[in-house]
Structure formats: C-alpha cells, structure tokens
Amino acid sequence: MAEISGISHIQLTVSSMARSRPFYERLLHALGMVTLIARDDFYYCIGGRTGVAISPAGPGALPFDQRVVGLHHLCFRARTRADVDAIHRTAQELGARIVRAPAETDWAPGYYSVLFEDPDGIRIEANHVPGRGHLEP
C-alpha cells in the first residue's frame, strides 16, 4: 500500500486572469505561499507543502457550478483558529463573498472554519482541526 503525504498542487481554471490573479496573489501570499510562476496565462504559488495554480478558461467555457461534475470546493488546513480568523479578514479585504463566517461545526472534533468564494464563485474554505481530528485514537 502507498501512503500519501498530502496534495501536491491544485490548478483552477478562471474566467478572467485580470480579475482572479490579484485575488489569488493576495490570498495565497497571506497564506504564506510564494509566487513561483507569474505569466499572463498561468499563475502558480507554493508553500505549506502544496501549490495552487490558476489559468484562464478556454473560449465558450461555462461559469463555475459546484453542483456539476468536477471541483466542489477546496479547503486549506490552518495551523490555528487565529489563522482561520486572519484568512477570514483577508477574504473580507478582497471583497470575497463570505458564505460562512468563522464558526465551529461538527465535521470533526473542534473543526473551526470559514468559507468564501473567489471572483468566479469557486468556494474556498480554511479550517483548523486540533490534534489529529478523526484520526485521533
């Protein structure tokens, strides 16, 4: 059996690089990530043992819909609840639509998260789970 150590990277397709790049650049830098590639047709940041890229949609692309086959949302794991709160503030400063302000829910013991949308409506979550969450003995 192979064992993974996380997700290496995720690439999102956006409707407008001009609109989405400043959003992701500020968000990802606020998460401690650094820009590795910055072109008009591709933007890529790395940090926290992962990478996030955005690239433009092709002609005739449909708007994002989390209810169709494909990505539903993505979630960044934060080290502390305070980090979740800081990400919430960054999302507010970016003018993101806040779907759910920071709150504790019952997904896992101590699960604390915020949920917001990027300029295309792609949902982004940031959570903190103390200890090992569901894997705690």
Explain this structure:
This protein has one domain: 2,3-Dihydroxybiphenyl 1,2-Dioxygenase, domain 1, CATH 3.10.180.10. Helix content is 20%, strand content 36%. It has helices at residues 17-30, 81-93, and strands at residues 9-14, 34-39, 42-47, 50-56, 73-77, 97-104, 112-117, 123-128. The strands form 2 sheets. A 4-stranded mixed beta sheet has the order 1-4-3-2, covered by helices on one side. Strands 5-8-7-6 form a 4-stranded mixed beta sheet, covered by helices on one side. The protein is globular and about 50 Å long. The mean pLDDT is 93.
Write the topology of this structure.
Layout: E1 9-14, H1 17-30, E2 34-39, E3 42-47, E4 50-56, E5 73-77, H2 81-93, E6 97-104, E7 112-117, E8 123-128
Parallel strand pairs: 1-4, 5-8
Antiparallel strand pairs: 2-3, 3-4, 6-7, 7-8
Helix proportion of residues, in percent? 10-25%
What is the CATH class designation? Answer: Alpha Beta
Proportion of residues in extended strands: 35-45%
CATH level-four homologous superfamily name: 2,3-Dihydroxybiphenyl 1,2-Dioxygenase, domain 1
Outline, from the CA principal axes? globular
CATH architectural grouping: Roll
Features:
4-stranded mixed sheet, 20% helix, alpha/beta, single chain, globular, 2 helices, 8 strands, 2,3-Dihydroxybiphenyl 1,2-Dioxygenase, domain 1, 137 residues
In brief, what are we looking at here?
With 137 residues, this protein is α/β, with parallel strands linked by helices. Helices cover 20% and strands 36% of the residues.
